[in-house]
Amino acid sequence: MKEKLKEFTKKHSEIWKFIKFTFTGASTSVLEITVFMFLQYVVFKSLNEVPVTDNAFLAFLGIEYKGYMYSYAISAVIGYAAAYIMNRKLTFKADANPVFSTIIYVLMVFFTIIFNTWFGAFLGTWVTNNGWNSVIVEMIIKVVVMTVPTIWTYPLNRFVIHRKKKAADE
Asked: Closest Cα partner for 67 from 112, 115, 133?
């Protein structure tokens, strides 16, 4: 069995990297969801229906409630930090310049968190305004919001952020 796995990972190294990336994403997503739920239902519970009235830009983006905005932003930062470490060390075994990798990763995450915060808060507002608030609905929305950025995060992680200097790529 061990030999078959080694053979598969060598023959299909790109598929294996995507599998590891997906596993890392799932693992850090559990962390992110846990943090999100704690923030949403404990720390910022009292702010889930407090409007963001002092910021025209956030209102324009459809972010109406402070609790959703804070919960999405903080949980995303924690999840992405854990993902960076795991992907660099385990998934891609990167040896590219760590300063360059970190700067590019931070930029990618910055824009991804802005997207996730907007998308999550927008959907949270939509759910609240339609009276569909429930733990299950909000968890489904959180998973959807966390999954969408894979469209750009895998290619950036694989080919830009966590590159290998050596020609012999694992």
From this structure: 133
> At CA 131, angle to CA 140 and CA 37, rounded to 5?
40
CA distances from 37 to 71, 101, 138, 170 (A): 8, 30, 9, 37
DSSP class of 54: S
Side chain identity, residue 61:
L
pLDDT one-digit tens code per residue, 6-56: 898 889 999 999 999 999 999 998 999 999 999 999 999 999 888 887 787
The C-alpha atoms of residue 16 and residue 4 are separated, in whole angstroms, by 13
Conformation bin of residue 97: beta by default, left when phi > 0, alpha when psi is -120 to 50:
beta
pLDDT tens digit string along 102-161?
999 999 998 988 888 888 888 988 998 999 988 899 889 888 888 889 899 999 999 999
Please provide the distance, in angstroms rounded to a whole number, between the alpha carbons at the two ends of the chain: 20
What the block records as the tokens of 123 is: 């959907």
Please report the beta strands in 64-146, taking only residues with DSSP state E, as ranges in sequence order.
Answer: none
Whole-Å CA distances, 97 to 9, 108, 164: 25, 17, 9
DSSP type of residue 63: -
CB atoms within 10 A of CB 52: 20
The pair of three-digit structure tokens given for residue 140, joined into one six-digit string: 């489904």
pLDDT of residue 166: 66
